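Sanity check

After download, print the first record. It should look like this:
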Amino acid sequence: MNTKPKTSRIIKEQRKKMSLSLKQLSKISGVSLSHLSRIEQGNRRPSIRTLQKIAKPLGFDLQELLVITGHLSPSSSLTSEEEREKLQIELNELMNRVVIDIKRIQEIINRLILSK
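Expected structure tokens:
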């Protein structure tokens, strides 16, 4: 029986399917070679942040990798496409308000400086 953690096995198998060396995956993902090696050997459990970095080079999106490795149930969703669009719109509106607020702050500062 293979006692290697499921995540380690899946990462190694997928890396090999993609014909990537550990060194190549390290360079593409920005995860150190030694850390990747320890993950594949089952000596380290990757954080969600690490999984996020290696998901795309391994041909997965983060949610898919989390489901495959058992970190997330298949019925769960990190963010639906519709929710993602709403959040992007809200973020854009907030950023526009920040720009307007910064311009107003600059106007006030200028008036205060000129009134001296």
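If your output differs, re-run the checksum step. Summary of this record's structure: Residues 67 and 73 are 6 Å apart (CA to CA).
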